[in-house]
Amino acid sequence: MTTEEISPVNLSDSFKAYDVRGLVGDTITAASVQAVGAAFVEVLGLAGETVLIGGDMRPSSPEFSQAFAAGASSRGANVKLLGLISTDELYFASGILNAAGVVFTASHNPAQYNGMKMTKAGAVPLSSETGLAEIRDLAQSYLDNGLPAAVDTPGTIGEADVLQDYAEFLRKLVDLTGSRPLKIVVDAGNGMAGMTTPAVLGDALLPGLPFDIVPLYFELDGTFPNHPANPLEPANLLDLQAAVIKHGADIGLAFDGDADRCFVIDELGGPVSPSAVTALVARREISRAKAAGEERPTVIHNLITSRAVPELITHDGARAVRTRVGHSFIKTTMAEEGAVFGGEHSAHYYFRDFFNADTGMLAAMHVLAALGEQEGPLSELGREYEPYVSSGEINSQLEDVPAAVARVRDAYTRPDVTIDELDGLTFTATNGDWWFNLRASNTEPFLRLNAEALNTTTLTTLRDTVLNLIRK
Predict the structure, then answer these.
(1) Given 11, 88, 205, 310, which is the most exposed site by the fewest CB atoms within 10 A?
(2) Is residue 215 a contact partner of residue 188, using CB atoms and an 8 Å limit?
(3) Where does residue 180 rank: exposed (0-12), middle (13-18), buried (19+ CB within 10 A)?
(4) Distance in angstroms (rounded) separating the CA atoms of residues 129 and 112
(5) At residue 471, what are phi and psi to the nearest 5 degrees?
């Protein structure tokens, strides 16, 4: 890299706690990606090792993949270009091949964004505390001072396709061949599920399953011409809900852009909460682990999943472990505890059999298996796992977040409320009627409220009272 080519990019603008996300051509460029590729190999000591590189359907992903490959191979890593992949395909490949890697994606962010999710060999998570900050700092020095000359023996660059192996691996984990016939509407949001759904649930690569799949927006298009690939926003589920009703489907599935998260819609068009999906999948994984001789399996859940989740885990004779929000916390705790499964309110689902990594497709397969092995509709099945009423996440943009938190804490510091500080502040009524959590955003002036109660009346009163204190 010559002096004229040195990028003005400040990597602190795109490096987050667990991944990298930035505006293409502004906070993330081909030059910055090449520097990160070189730093990735140096920091993790990957000279002579295999590095996996793939990307989603965003227009910049191919260029960025090539740039990262150039940087990584210049430091002696042997690159395997995986082409178009979902994020959980990278985790699969990293786990099965025991190789470090990166996928270029900005998940559910708009089209003008791209980013990097990086993993160590074996799909071990990489965060700012476990190497990501060092990679950022070394890459920044390369950007500021120029890349060093290539090592004497640069690495090779080849190609590999892991889609069929990924599909076969998932099919072995959940046997769907005995399911009753199901009509399934899948909204891929023009994201990577448009490629992975036909491979795993359809007959594109493997024998067909007893499913009639109605595709919505399966065309891979990183400009997202139909709606943002963010199913967490209710507006982005409207097309799927309408299609489920129109086609008389048994279930609807919505994936985000990189297909690592999955949201579920029942036959009436109603959302099945990620907490309910967590509980349903937990029950299946607990049962399977016990059948294999595990006396008391462990299941991880973050602190803002429904109270129904740990209650069901305990009821089924397993151990519930509560953790902070965020995939690196979940993955780390999964490994430490030997947990069979973990779930988050954000529809990230983690499996021991999937290298402790998250995969929306495997979670969807568990829901399909549960639905397909009984005759009742999904609305009835889901009701069993949703005994409480939840607010969902409510964000308040504030000038003074700490002051708002202090007001709420002062109001609820009383004998009938317990307060814990595992992640933000969680307030719980000692009589069990309600709880709520306040968490400040790490990157924006937002305060996030999640609340749950025994009934709608109690929840409404609680929500409005807390919001009035927050926004005072």
Answers:
(1) 205
(2) yes
(3) exposed
(4) 28
(5) -95, 15
Sort strands 113-120 and 20-23 into parallel, antiparallel or unpaired. Answer: antiparallel
Largest CA distance in the chain: 70
Distance in angstroms (rounded) separating the CA atoms of residues 367 and 376: 13
What is the C-alpha to C-alpha distance for residues 169 and 387, in angstroms, rounded to an integer?
A: 34
Distances from the Cα of 426 to the Cα of 436, 439, 467, angstroms: 6, 9, 15
pTM for the whole structure: 0.95
Q: Mind telling me the catalytic residues?
A: 107
Structure letter (DSSP) for residue 426: E
> How far, in Å, are 87, 115, 426, 471 from residue 21 at the CA level?
14, 4, 29, 30
The DSSP-derived string for 283-306 is HHHHHHHHHTT-SS-EEEEETTS-
Asked if 58 and 33 count as a contact pair (C-beta separation under 8 A), the reply is no
User: Which domains are delineated in the chain?
Assistant: 3-161 (3.40.120.10), 165-270 (3.40.120.10), 274-375 (3.40.120.10), 389-470 (3.30.310.50)
Task: Output 28-32 pairs: Cβ under 8 A, ≥24 positions apart.
Answer: 28/64, 28/114, 28/115, 30/63, 30/64, 30/67, 31/1, 31/5, 31/6, 31/7, 31/67, 31/143, 32/7, 32/139, 32/143
Q: Could you tell me the CA-to-CA distances from 57 to 54, 157, 177, 191 in Å, in that order?
A: 10, 21, 30, 7
Phi, psi of 355 (to 5 degrees): 65, 30
pLDDT in tens, the chain (472 residues): 433 344 589 999 999 988 999 999 999 999 999 999 999 999 999 999 999 999 999 999 999 999 999 999 999 999 999 999 999 999 999 999 999 999 999 998 999 999 999 999 999 989 998 999 999 999 999 999 999 999 999 999 999 999 999 999 999 999 999 999 999 999 999 999 999 999 999 999 999 999 999 999 999 999 999 999 999 899 999 999 999 999 999 999 999 999 999 999 999 999 999 999 999 999 999 999 999 999 999 999 999 999 999 999 999 999 999 999 887 789 889 999 999 999 999 999 999 999 999 999 999 999 999 999 999 999 999 999 999 999 999 999 999 999 999 999 999 999 999 999 999 999 999 999 999 999 998 667 899 999 999 999 999 999 999 999 999 8
Spatial distance between the Cα atoms of 73 and 20, rounded to a whole number of angstroms: 21
